[in-house]
Amino acid sequence: MGRVFDWLDEKFKIKAPHKRFLQRRLPPGINYFYCLGGAAFTSYLLLFISGLLLSLYYVPSEMEAYESIVRIQNEVHLGWLIRSIHKWSATFLIVFILSHTLRVFISRAYKSPKELNWIVGCLTLVGAFASGFTGYLLPWDQKAYWATTVGTSMASTIPLAGRHLMYIIRGGMDVGGATLIRFYSFHVLWLPITMAALLWAHFHMIKRLGIKGRL
Ligand code: HEM
Known about the structure:
Elements: H1 2-12, H2 19-22, H3 36-54, H4 65-74, H5 79-106, H6 115-137, H7 142-153, H8 162-170, H9 177-209
Helix pairs in contact: 3-5, 4-5, 5-6, 6-7, 6-9
Bound molecules: protoporphyrin IX containing FE.
């Protein structure tokens, strides 16, 4: 395998210009728990790719959303698999982000000069939860409808602005077609774009400030 790579490198010359990225010095005390951020990122990439494929067949309309999901599940070639990959990578993303956060907390890597990266990480976590919440409505079945009705009604318990906030989130008084379009837009555009920007900032700071090693 190594010889094949060496031969390819002789032709493409990729190793030398990327040495700076591929061969970084790591502080002592690094262990497998430091792979959790990378595992979260792998889940994020899987989510992104499977989401792109699902968007080829999903129809975000009150009349057709449910049927389009049934079609993806039963008729589209490997549709059931892409749906499962999307669902499971979302689950793993949450598990990996939470364990990564715990690793960062235990190794006290949130301290100066990395406090801003901790805040950026927290915003990414909120983005991941919001993506899960907005995605849950998209199958447009009874479970999705009632989960969103209960979830969005919690906003109304916030003093003073609560009812307005719930109205804004739902796009009306009740969960309906406007909510579906709003959630779809947040799920496939607003949140992925925001999370990509946050992750860029996250990785940029890791590159510049390094990783915290042994305590
Ligand atoms: C999709 C979400 C996330 C991804 C893909 C991600 C990815 C990564 C990666 C690859 C690293 C390098 C070291 C390692 O893997 O442990 C890292 C470091 C770091 N992450 Fe995250 N992360 C995410 C979410 C978070 C969250 C939620 C927090 C905190 C609330 C956070 C805070 C940090 C901090 C402070 C560092 C620097 C750690 C050090 O210097 O040792 N990250 N992240």
